[in-house]
Prior knowledge:
Blueprint: E1 7-11, H1 18-25, E2 38-40, E3 46-49, E4 55-58, H2 76-95, E5 103-108, H3 110-121, E6 128-132, E7 155-160, H4 168-181, E8 185-190, H5 199-215, H6 227-231, H7 237-248, H8 256-270, H9 280-286, E9 288-293, E10 318-321, E11 327-330, E12 336-339, H10 357-376, E13 384-389, H11 391-401, E14 409-413, H12 421-424, H13 437-449
Parallel strand pairs: 1-2, 1-5, 5-6, 6-7, 7-8, 9-10, 9-13, 13-14
Antiparallel strand pairs: 3-4, 11-12
Amino acid sequence: MAPAGGLVLWLHGSGQTGEESRAQVGPYLSAPELASVRSSFPTAPTAPIPCYGGEVITAWFGIPEVPITAKSVRDEKEVLRAVERVHEMLDREVAAGTSPSKIFVCGLSQGGALALATVLLYPKTLGGCVVFSGSLPLSKSFAERVPTEARKTPVVWFHGMADGVVLFEAGHAGCAFLQELGVPCEFKAYPTLGHTLVDEELQYFQQWIKDRLSQGTCVPATSLPDKERCLKQPKIFSKFIEKKKEIYDLDDNSLIVPFLFSLAASLRRRAPPSQLVPTPMAAARSRSFVLWLHGLGDSGPANEPIRTFFSAAEFRLTKWAFPSAPDSPVSCNHGAVMPSWFDIHELPISSGSPQHEIGVLKAVENVHAVIDKEVADGIHPENIFVCGFSQGGALTLASVLLYPKTLGGGAVFSGWVPFGSSITERISPKARKVDSIVEHFRLQLCGHME
């Protein structure tokens, strides 16, 4: 008799076990709609892993280096051996009567990479593939070996933009490869998520499995990151800091904390004494305004918890603004539509990266319009601070340098100069007087290194 329902095969990450994954993922497969779906959580064999100094851990195949990038070296022979083992599991299921259309291969990290390779090289169309924080473990030369039926298997790919183990660029490169093959792929980007599983991903995963079982394997054309899901993430800034410290091994003297305290100090120097109540005549001079520009793929509301760091009395007259960038296709992310202040042509960004100056200048005009409105409402320019992270930091720098008046300051966190030398001629003498928290970073870091 053929087994009822379907099968979810979960492949764990390196160093984990099947039982550990079952404890975390299993509850999401216990919904009434999935009662007929069985689950399997095999454990990988143990082996010495090069990237961990030869430490013997559970692993499906060797990992030459960490972090994993789009250009990382791959141990393809071991990957193919692992794929064969998983194919044997699938073949047994199919031989026992399980319909391939009801078989889902899923995995986290290295397990996600193996899940992807498994479905791409399987001769039949499966119910789906779910990749969490994974990468493509095979070179593009394997495209010729992907069967026509395998190209019909739908894929949903979850990846955090703060992933320090399997970099976000590796995830997007894998998505681009699937697009080239014509594989239907839904890519879910999470701006502050590191290399871990979170409830929101697993809730979506659960619903995705339900939908595939009820609708078959037919899915819409490739879907790219959607803003709505990003906006619903429970992103608390303090947790974001702790995650960054964990990923990049930062201590309290590292980049993030000096950034926050430098910004606080800059505002405090310009704030009225806490014991004084400004008179109406002095109100305009006393008030301050902070404009925060988020990074690529993020949103303004998701960054609002930052203001909780400035609850002291000195900031009682500070006004905050967290605008969201418009949705637009981004070249470096293979045309993915996401919140972006301007186009970015390549990742990683270097001093020689091409700049989309027309887009930058248009974004600068929009920021200047926000600043002009605050000035018109009575806030003194020297009480206005523009701050930003990553792409928002780049826009921050351009905005303060090209503004005709001296602003209170500019805080650039992990940003870059988004224009060429020809634009520097347009920087006014007053704009050159703007305090830069980037300099505070440099001084604090140099002092820390000494």
